[in-house]
Write a structure and sequence with these properties.
Blueprint lengths: L19 H13 L6 H14 L3 E5 L2 H11 L7 E4 L6 H8 L3 E4 L11 H10 L4 E7 L8 H11 L3 E4 L7 E2 L2 E2 L6 E5 L12 E5 L2 H10 L22 H12 L1 H18 L14 E2 L5 E4 L3 H10 L26 H7 L2 E4 L7 H13 L7
Parallel strand pairs: 2-3, 2-4, 4-5, 5-8
Antiparallel strand pairs: 1-9, 6-7, 6-10, 8-9, 11-12
Helix pairs in contact: 1-8, 2-8, 3-4, 3-7, 9-12
């Protein structure tokens, strides 16, 4: 094994790959003079839908806008209850509130940290009203228990919305994220598996959901003119963002394979430590937006990695209902609360060299004290 990298060589937690293809495409858009509402967005929508295997795709300004528009498109009633996970980025719950719904938090599975079908079922039984939808998150690049959640949604005849912001290219039973549930929402923030700088995408097989979302992100327009039939926002993606996205999409499979190779190296390197490494159930394909481990002394481990020139992140340090913006929301989610104190995400992105991955593994095995959970 290689000697550890020198302390001055920092190992970053993320490193977006912007190359000649992205620059050339953006330059073409700039030279065309058509910066918005041009051909690039439409082409990106077609290509992304095809890549997922979905019938429709609607590009948006960011991932939160995608979630908000999707929830508007499924027509949540004002004050309608929407069951979701407390262990994710706040945007998932924010979007429910933006759309007039009320998030109801169900606990997560202790092995995958994704929404548990068992706790969703219990939460719905105890909910103080009628649940109108489920919003599930494919966390860290791992799909949720689609079959379990879809079964509940089918029984209740309610939509299942997938927050796929971290799951570009992930699969469940061979089906790609973007075709799971009734509607899926992606983010293209710079740290994601592919980026447009800022941007999002809605995918669905339902033409009415797609049409409603398309109107909502474009001021409620029913045509390209001034026929405004619904209340809407300007949540459109620009051609500049779409141009970057088209170049990134072409490399998505290569990016994901690199993430999976790096994750496999880390799994092997950390096998004999007390770290709990990520689980990949047999019917799911993880794309490792984050490589997230657990330990009993997370903050100490993170500080020690920092001393060795290695970045690490905590996603997420608090369940959503414990944030100040959600202080009026009550929930009993002991698993989410526990894992929030224990999770630590390690570098896994495609820009890592083999030497950096080996160094990371060696530091964790030999230089850092790790407490088991």
């Amino acid at each position: 094994m290689s000697e550890p990298a020198p302390p001055t060589e920092r190992v970053p937690i993320a490193d977006p790959d912007i190359g000649a293809a992205e620059i050339d495409r953006v330059t073409d858009v700039l030279e065309s003079g058509r910066l918005a509402a041009g051909d690039e967005v439409a082409a990106f929508e077609r290509e992304f839908a095809s890549d997922c295997g979905a019938d429709h795709a609607v590009a948006t300004a960011n991932g939160t806008a995608a979630l908000h528009a999707a929830l508007e498109a499924i027509d949540i009633e004002p004050g309608g209850l929407v069951v979701t996970t407390p262990f994710t980025f706040v945007a998932s719950a924010n979007a429910i509130r933006f759309a007039g719904g009320v998030p109801v938090f169900a606990d997560v599975d202790p092995a995958t940290y994704t929404l548990s079908a068992d706790t969703v079922r219990e939460t719905i039984k105890e909910a103080p009203g009628t649940v109108e939808a489920i919003v599930a998150v494919h966390l860290y690049g791992l799909p949720v228990d689609v079959a379990g959640l879809q079964s509940i949604a089918d029984e209740l005849d309610i939509p299942l919305v997938m927050d796929a912001a971290q799951a570009h290219g992930a699969t469940y039973d061979g089906e790609r994220a973007g075709t799971l549930g009734d509607v899926s929402c992606f983010s293209f923030y710079p740290t994601k598996n592919m980026t447009t700088g800022e941007g999002g995408m809605i995918t669905t097989d339902d033409p009415e959901i797609a049409a409603r979302a398309e109107r909502f992100i474009n001021h409620g327009r029913d045509t390209g003119g001034y026929e405004h039939v619904d209340l809407g926002h300007n949540f459109r993606m620009t051609d500049l963002n779409a141009a970057i996205g088209r170049a990134q999409l072409a490399d998505l499979r290569e990016y994901n394979e690199a993430r999976r190779r790096n994750a496999a190296m880390l799994n092997e390197a950390l096998a004999e430590t007390d770290l709990v490494t990520p689980l990949e159930p047999a019917n799911r394909r993880h794309v490792y937006h984050q490589y997230t481990v657990r330990c009993g002394n997370r903050d100490e481990v993170r500080a020690a990695l920092d001393d060795h020139g290695i970045d690490a992140g905590v996603y997420y340090p608090s369940p959503v209902h414990e944030l100040e913006a959600f202080e009026t929301f009550e929930a009993s989610t002991p698993v989410a609360e526990r894992v929030a104190d224990e999770v630590l995400s390690l570098p896994v992105h495609p820009g890592l060299s083999e030497r950096q991955v080996e160094y990371l593994g060696r530091v964790l095995r030999e230089e850092v004290r790790i407490d088991h959970v």
